[in-house]
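User: I'm putting together a teaching handout on how sequence relates to shape, and I'd like one worked example. Could you take DUF202 domain-containing protein from Microbacterium elymi, show the sequence you're using, and then write out its predicted structure as tokens right after it?

Assistant: Happy to. First the sequence, then the structure tokens directly below it.
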Amino acid sequence: MTDAAHERPFDPGLQTERTLLAWRRTCLALVVGNAVAIKYLIDALGGWAALLGVAGIALAGIAWVLCTVRYRRVHLGLVRDQTLVSGGRLPALVAAAVAVICVAALILLFTLWRPW
């Protein structure tokens, strides 16, 4: 192999597409988790559960759009300039959606679980 093949920043295979699919699976799992949280919290919290769940679903939807934008930016950067261009908005947004699910789980735990 030549030295030029070792200096390439990426494999021209499908790693950016696999990363996009992984982010999309994560977003889909967040939507399902928030929908389940709405179903089980609606009895305990009423309208607040729906508001909390819809906020989590909205964050996951925004993350879905951002992962597509991130994929296009990274792919074009690798193909054109052979540089990796990426930001931190997508992981931050996914972390926010996970935090919404965690808050819903804690509320469920403290409102419905009565060991005493």
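A couple of points you could highlight for students: The helical segments are 3-6, 15-45, 47-81, 89-112. The chain has four helices and no strands.
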